[in-house]
Amino acid sequence: METGGPPAVVVKKVPVTPKAEIHKRFGEKACYTVEEVHEPTHNGCPGLAIPQKGPSLYRCCLQLPEFSVVSETFRKKMDAKQSAAAMALEKLGIIPATDTDAQDPWDALVARLSYLFSNEFLSSPHPLSCHFRAALQRVGHLSCLVPISVLAIYDAKLSSLCKTINPKVESDPLLIMSLVLKAAQRSSGSVTTCEDQLSLQRGNPYPPEIMQTLFNQQSSLAGSIWILAILIPCSEEKAVVPLMLKVAPNDYYLDVIAQKLGLCDASTVIISRTIGKASLEMRLYFCAPKSCLGDLSSGLLHSAEAVYPEGSLNKRGSYLSGQLIYGDAILASIGYKWKSSDLFYEDVSLRTYYRILVSKTPSGLYKLSRDAVLAAELPAAFTSRTNWRGSFPRDLLRTFCCHHRLSEPVFSIVSNPLELLTEFPGSQKKLKVTESSNQVINEGANDISGSVPTGSRETFSCEVKIFSRCQDLIIKCSPKQSFKKQNDAFQNASLRVLSWLNKYFKKLDMALEELTSCGDVLDIQFDSQLFIKEFSLAASVYTFWQSIGVQEEDQVLDSACINQLNGMLGDKVGFIDLKGPDSGVSPSNGWLVCIVYSICLVTGGEYEKELVESTEDFEFEIGSGAVISCLESVVAQMSVGQSARFYMKFPPQELIVASARDPSLILPVLTPGGCSLECTTTLLRVTEPLEDRMEQALFSPPLSKQRVDYAVQHIKESCASSLVDFGCGSGSLLESLLEFPTSLEKIVGVDLSRKSLAHAAKILYSKLSTSSDANASSTFIKSVLLYDGSITIFDSRLYGFDIGTCLEVIEHMEEDQAHLFGDIVLSKFCPRILIVSTPNYEYNVILQRSTPQEEDPDDSNHQQSCKFRNHDHKFEWTREQFGRWASDLAARHNYSVEFSGVGGATDKEPGFASQIALFRRGDECPRNADVTHKYSVIWEWNST
């Protein structure tokens, strides 16, 4: 081995895959057909009568000239293909060979280089073969010369071998060229170097017939083409500017780029990896150092740090590509693609360049996912999946890591079984109603996720780790918060990391102590040295963002913000023009609003306008920080149908260019102090928060948890041995009963939703099958059944149970059906005790912060003044209406009734949030001879 070169690396023998062996022997004659297989699965819940669709599985049929084979099912298509190929080889009696060419990566690199200059490769549908054909048509002394940088970039196998020899080639394009050059000198003359050129050529000329065929081929270009590109100067004091590339039909496009860089030809042009989507062929092109040309005789190029003069690092280009870029660079989208000899090209504008920069920040990723660079902002809270708009935090974090050449983030879910508590010390949130506006202030709601109710079910927390490409741990987020759903844990943990990174990118000169302090608040730890190393170039690239203030995550926007706008917007324009009558429907925190907005650049004394950004249907959640604060403040003061016009704080010019539909109209008038941004918006509609969202925000424990606790307490006191839950839904009450010691032996759930029943069955089976503790409450349960049926239809199998429950169900029926249910349940089913809960309509004044109008309580069809809590509610009764319904029902069927509730107090207006009627049978259960089975058994479990 030659001295001075990289040491040889011995690589283990790699077995050839079955599919590769089949291709080697049969080529295109081997035909693979993959079909998706839908196999029902019970998802670990035996006995469930509802078939459940399992994960997608694939089966492959391999057709060979003489026979065919069919694989087993697999989760991945490729696994199915490999299995079919393996079966075919076994049937043929063939043992796959071992790839011995990779024993020595240097030998493999030389062999690969020789193959690239072979006759066979020149006719292959490979992007690099197009460069060879273009190089053969170059004139003069450049004829047949192929730049080394082209070989290193466009052949993945060659690049992979170079990485095996020296992993540092990942970030240093010059180093990979050095290895290719050294391999060429080992090729025994099949590939030769050109004096004073960073190019290679074939040792022996191509046969005349190949050259003749090549010259007979006409260029894919009918005429010269003009391509818009971007020049990124090395000096940060110089602006990034557009330039035009003119490529004639027989020109080698790299020679054209070289001329724009002040070079004679493409030999010394270095090419970066793709930027953005690989399919777009967007790359950076820059010049190799002159000092490296003197080392050609030794076949070794030094690393970039040793060759380039100090201060020549192109920080903006290096940050874009994740590689070391030196000197002036050109950003262009041009090149060849697989199975096509046509030249691919797209314009790269200043808007494209700045959108790439924007996409490398957490907030920018969110802005682009909403297509609202000037209006959107990374939300401070993940309140619910239904209210989130744009890419989800977990996807944003993955994309951020990809853009910064970091490893895929690692998510670890931790299950947290809750302790059983009878009291909730210190958890009660206080509700205060202001006399002036009836505004509810949640004094205990600093936590964006709300308290997790104890004693209900297991909760989940998520730990996130971010590693470098070398697998060094850079960031670790270990939130203390727990969530009922795993997805909420994933998204909230991801959002914490994004929020912390966002603070850094908006204040890149932040002191290490402040960055650590912000991390402590968000339960984030980081390696300061590794972190600064990974993002060292960001400070010089995002200097224009320093003027953007960091929006506080816990900021609650109120009317005071609107008064602060005048002082913030500048001395020329600082008013808000509100038009349209007040419709009385205004948004509040937690509500989804939909607006149409447009942002214009206003210039000149006559206020000439150029449209910068507009959206016809833009949704966001009030109070989550999903838009810039001034826009959110204005919208919060509007009612549906109203329009507003106001002037925004002038953002960095680069953001304006990134958002502009046509930067050519914006750039000529974009002068500091000479223009302003005008925003007009119309509030189209508002959507109230879901019922459970409102309840969780205002009550701790949430109202749903309090209803379950109320039922469980009475079940304990009743000494009941059998229970039926009418309208059991997903089984939240039944699941809770397995966590408390009761006298129940048989529990039954009835619902019309088969999907909800299937979900309930899975949860209950999981709880029952894992309860091995002798003291666990579920060990007392002998039987569990779930029925599909309507609770307004009698089924004799549910006759005479000790206790029946119907929690927040009747309001989902029409009122006549609710009356029918009451009569059926007390006259036919005859439970000893019945617990019925339903929303108190009068409490909506607090939940929705509005004042109900005078209404006739006897009129069940009255026009509602407060909206119902859920869009699926058919009615909501006042206390008087509910009391009359329950009292009349009890009197007709010889039951007594007691009234209570949860979420409020009986002696304070407007009573309980959820009102409850508890019916007790006055005598022995009458004998019922009506034997009828109307329900379908969905799932059944027995302790035996």
Automatic annotation (TrEMBL):
Its cofactor is Mg(2+). Keywords: Magnesium, Metal-binding, Methyltransferase, RNA-binding, RNA-mediated gene silencing, S-adenosyl-L-methionine, Transferase. Residues 226-360 form the Small RNA 2'-O-methyltransferase Hen1 La-motif C-terminal domain. The keyword Plastid does not apply. Residues 23-93 form the dsRNA binding domain. GO terms for cellular component: cytoplasm; nucleus. The keyword rRNA-binding does not apply. It catalyses: small RNA 3'-end nucleotide + S-adenosyl-L-methionine = small RNA 3'-end 2'-O-methylnucleotide + S-adenosyl-L-homocysteine + H(+). InterPro entries: DSRM_2, Hen1, HEN1_dsRBD2, Hen1_Lam_C, PPIase_dom_sf, PPIase_FKBP_dom, SAM-dependent_MTases_sf. Its EC number is 2.1.1.386. Belongs to the methyltransferase superfamily. HEN1 family. This is Small RNA 2'-O-methyltransferase. It comes from Rhododendron griersonianum. The lineage of its organism: Eukaryota, Viridiplantae, Streptophyta, Embryophyta, Tracheophyta.
